[in-house]
Structure formats: C-alpha cells, structure tokens
Amino acid sequence: TAQAVAAAPEDPLFGLMKAYREDPAENKVDLGIGAYRDDNAKPWILPVVKKADNAIHNDPTLNHEYLSIGGLPEFTAAAQKLIVGSDSPAIREKRICSLQTISGTGAVHLGGLFLSKFHPNKPSLYLSSPTWANHHQIFTNVGLTLGNYPYFSKETKGLDFDGMLQAIQGAPAGSVILLHACAHNPTGVDPTQEQWKQIATVMRQKNHFPFFDCAYQGFASGDLARDAWAIQYFVEQRFELCVAQSFAKNFGLYGERTGAFHFVSAPGADASNASAHIASQLAILQRSEISNPPAYGARIASRVLNDPALFKEWEADLRTMSGRIQEMRKGLRLRLEKRGTPGSWAHITDQIGMFSFTGLSEGQVKVLRDKWHVYMTKNGRISMAGLNSHNLDYFAEAVDSVVRE
Ligand code: LMR
Hints:
- This protein is α/β, with parallel strands linked by helices.
- It folds into two domains: 10-45 and 323-404, Alpha-Beta Complex (Aspartate Aminotransferase, domain 1), CATH 3.90.1150; 73-306, 3-Layer(aba) Sandwich (Aspartate Aminotransferase, domain 2).
- It is built from 17 helices and 13 strands.
- The protein has helices at 12-22, 47-57, 73-84, 89-92, 103-118, 133-141, 161-170, 193-205, 224-227, 229-236, 248-251, 271-289, 296-305, 308-339, 346-350, 362-372, 392-404, and strands at 29-30, 96-102, 124-129, 145-150, 152-153, 158-159, 176-180, 209-214, 241-246, 258-264, 355-357, 374-375, 381-383.
- The strands form four sheets. It has a seven-stranded mixed beta sheet with strand order 2-10-9-8-7-3-4, with helices on both faces.
- Helix 2 (47-57) crosses helix 13 and helix 3 packs across helix 13.
- 45% of the residues are buried.
- The structure holds (2S)-2-hydroxybutanedioic acid.
- (2S)-2-hydroxybutanedioic acid is lined by residues 13, 33-34, 132, 134, 185.
- Residues 13, 33-34, 132, 134, 185 line the site of (2S)-2-hydroxybutanedioic acid.
C-alpha cells in the first residue's frame, strides 16, 4: 500500500517560512506567516505573559496531571466571557458551552466535525473567497461540502459587500456561513457594523448558521470589545451559532496551542438542556481525538484573564502590538505615495489586523522574492508585523520597483 500514497505538496505557508530561513541574504524580509514581530523583526513575548509564566513556575500547587476533557475550567469560563461579553444572554440563559482546543485550528476542526456528525441535513459550509487556506482542508477533512461567497473587490481593494450578501442570500436555507469575526485573513478587510447588521438580517431570513472564526480579538483594533462586536451582535440577535477562538496572536502563545470552541444554542425553554447535550457530545469527540488539551498555554491565559490587574496589562500589550502595526501601515502608505508608486495605496491603511492584501500579482511577488529577498504569500498578502522601522524603506523601494517593471 505504501506505493499507493502519492506525495503531497508542501504546505505553502510553512514552505515559505523554510525558504526564508534558508536564504542567506542579510537584507531579507519575512512578510509570510502571520506572527507578530517587534521592531527588530524578533518574536515578542508579551510582558504580561512573562509575568504569568513566572508565577506558574513558582506555584507549588501545580503539577503535570491531565486537564479534564473540556480543558481548564477557569480558562474556558474566562474565554467565554471574553468572546460573548460577561453580561451576554447566552451565559445568563446557560446556553453556551465551551471546550478548550488546540488553538483556533483545533476549534475550527472540532466545530466542523460536530456539524458534520450532528447537523441533521449535512449542510454546505460557505467560505469567503478568499479565506485562510487551511479552512478548505479542515472542513473537507470532516466531510463537509464547501461553497464560496465573494468577499474581496479587486477594484476597490475593499469589501465586495453586494457580492457577499447576494451569495449568502442565494445559499440554500440552513447553510453554515463561516465568518471572520475581525481582521479577515488574508485580506485585512472587515464589514462595518452597519454591514454586519445587514448580513445578520439576510442570515436570519435564510435560517443560516453563523460559524465565527476569531483569531485576532484585541489584536486588530487594540480594543477587545470592538473586535468581538460582530459575534456579540449575532448572539444578541439570538442566533444559534458557534465560535472558534484562538489565543495565538493576542497572547503571542503561537506554539502553545491555546484556544476554545464555543457553541451557543438557540434560545428557548429547553436551551440549557440542549446545550448540556451538545457539550456532552463535544466531549466525546474531543476525547477520541486529543483526549484532553494541553495545560501550559491555558494556565497562562487563565491567569491573565482572571486577574483584573494583569488583564489591564494585557490590554496595554495588545495596544502595543496593534499600534505598531498601524504605524507600519501609515509608514508604508506614506512611502509609496511619496515615491508616486503607480496605483492607489489607501487600502494599506484602510485594512486592519495582521495582514494587508496588497494587490501585487503573483508575478510581482515572485520578483520580490527572487530579486529583493522579500517573502510573502503568492496571493499578494503581507504580514504587516514583518515590517519595521529598519526595513520599511527597503520594502517600499522594492514594491515601487516591481510595480514599475
Ligand atoms: C497565517 O495565516 O499566516 C496564520 O494564521 C498562521 C497559520 O497557521 O496559517
């Protein structure tokens, strides 16, 4: 049977990371993977995470026993409050259940698996076009049928709102619609609050099920409530929905795989019962796949989320990261406009979060890599966090040059 297995292609993003590492050029620039870097292009351990980490190391009550199947209870409770708001009707009415997961990817997977097993009509799941590349394979792996809705307008480099709304309207009633809660990956383009309201109206009419992927709460705008606005709005509108929540970017806990999956049941007399049933089934899925989640990252996040003083420090750290990224957006746009680089560059500052969808073509991306040692994904996405005060001029010069070629 071994001969029957064909070689799979390398993961494009991790392949890019490897190519960057192997490039000996001194002026190389890594704008590939979405991971925060400081002004010296180095990974940044959030000061509040360092504090929590020290406290954990000095805590004699901790050991290396298993967590429960659903994870660390004080972590999931705090994660739940953070994402839907502590005064959410879903919490009050006991119709939200939450499990700790292997970061956002694990949460997306658990949600997809649950829907494919328990949704009565095996619905199609609609992804924005484009979306995070991993979404396709995660949902395909659990046997869901995928559809797309338009999202990005090449002309405006902003949201194709009409296209999006029409496609959601046109999807068969009861479809699952995957929505990026904020800081859309890869485009950096989010609906406005007014547009979210219209999306909710159409989804309600069609009885669609919202599946939110939230990987950037607090990291996008620096404001935790603002970045979760869409989720909280849909919950207030009494939708049944689910949320995949990642703490990779907003805590800088990438490798610790810290996240949560939340299922909010539809309101009604039996809602808390239904929610308990769902939690019990999710626990079986979790047990069969990972048994129980890893403790370390959840302990760190839990300490911060449950301690008001540390929480405040975390908010300051979030503003440090989002603020630096916003500075880089301004700096890049300014430099391109100063050079008179052909095209318009307002989208660089209009877009939000880790990424900018530059509009550069695959050919231009290739020249940037071969000639300038600048690494970014083929679709023209750049990770804004890879830019800093030392390489901004160089990158602007490189973009200017390839655009004029
Ligand atoms: C990205 O899109 O760069 C990040 O979300 C990292 C990943 O796992 O793909």
